Amino acid sequence: MTPDWAPNIHPLVVHFPIALLLAAVATDLLSVVMARRPALREAATWLYCAGAGTAVAAYLTGGNAADSMLLPAAVTPLVDDHDNWAFRTTVLFALLAAARVALPRFLTLKAPVWWGAFALGLLGAGMLYETAERGGRLVFEHGLGVQAITTDTPVEEVIPELAADQVDPGPIDLGDGSWVWRPVQGAEAVLAEQFTWVQNGPAGLPAEMVDDAEKGTVLSLSAAGPAALAVAGGAVDSAQADVYVNVDDLDGELQILLHAQDAENYDYFSIDGTTAALGRMEGGTATVFEEQAVDASGWLFLRVFGGDGHFRGYVNGDLVAHGHDDDLPPGPFGLKVSGSGTVLLERIQVQAVSD
């Protein structure tokens, strides 16, 4: 049912609740001013009902639209903010419409009640504006739904070209808490000395540079025994992390961490041979937001985003897990490897993001 020129159905739906709900508020104003015309009140009620119904459709299609895109770091917080306002606006109008239909069937409502209902509608119109303003920014500032959206800066543009015999300088600070690391010769020392080992230690996750047929020289991490956890970078709030890895030879689990507090408190996106999971470790107890079976063979592009109560995990550009929870305090990025075998690591890029 979606036209070829539309990326999804959401852009076709959003204008209906805007038009219907604004018409409902305007008609509601007339109904309380011209109280002797009950037809106006009835018309306002059914406009609220139609607007609330289409608002639900817009909210659901908007969620599906966001989940179908690999969102750049700069865009993700705005999408989440738009989603939050849309949810609050939809709930308010749905409750208002339900009350306007149900209450008159059981109670005789006086003029102050109808003025109060209009005030709620007016509040909803303000919330609708906030929702639409953020949606407009997504379209006209970032091009969602109408063109190629704003993309993250390619790593090649922010990492200086390294000579073949140059020793790895370690993670490159991009400012504002963002950084990137592409291991080269000497990466073993970087991992041991510039990362902070929270659990186990570098001896528990021996590293060496190896040749890979697809990626060239990459960092190999050998797991055996207790889980090893290392963190890097400063404490960040909302953040996106991209990790390029191969877990074909790992009989265990790789976790990408955000907001790491210690060994028992952090947000994570994990992958093993068959499953990707998004969740939180809190007080040593794991809560899984969502998990999904995935093809974890070959080189993987893993992305995890966490901030403002929204959490997303991607595998090779596809969203596989989405969750919501209160934010942990700001914390650094981390890697945790458990089980046995090897993990090949080609690149890490962490971006601190803000609204």
Give structural notes.
The chain is α+β, with helices and mostly antiparallel strands and 355 residues long. It has seven helices and 15 strands. The chain folds into two domains: 10-140; 161-352, Exo-inulinase, domain 1 (Jelly Rolls). 34% of the residues lie in helices and 35% in strands. It has a 15-stranded antiparallel sheet that branches. The protein is elongated, with a radius of gyration of 25 Å. The model has no long low-confidence stretch (mean pLDDT 88). It has helices at residues 10-13, 15-33, 38-67, 76-102, 111-140, 155-158, 187-194; strands at residues 172-175, 178-181, 196-199, 207-212, 216-223, 228-236, 239-246, 250-262, 265-271, 275-282, 285-293, 299-307, 310-315, 318-324, 331-352. α2 (15-33) runs antiparallel to α3 (38-67). β1 and β2 (178-181) form a beta hairpin.
CATH superfamily of the largest domain: Exo-inulinase, domain 1
Please indicate the count of domains: 2
Estimated structural class: alpha+beta
Percent in helix: 25-40%
Cα(first) to Cα(last) distance is: 34 Å
Rg, Å, rounded: 25 Å
Strand coverage percent: 25-35%
In CATH, the topology of the largest domain is named Jelly Rolls
Described by the principal axes of the CA atoms, the overall outline is: elongated
Total of helices: 7
Given as residue ranges, the uncertain stretches (5+ residues, pLDDT < 50) are none
Largest sheet: 15 strands, antiparallel
Q: What quaternary form is this?
A: single chain
CATH C-level name of the largest domain = Mainly Beta
- The count of DSSP E runs of length 2 or more, i.e. the number of strands, is 15
What's the architecture of the largest domain in CATH terms? Sandwich
If you average the pLDDT, what whole number results?
88
Order of helices and strands: HHHHHHEEHEEEEEEEEEEEEE
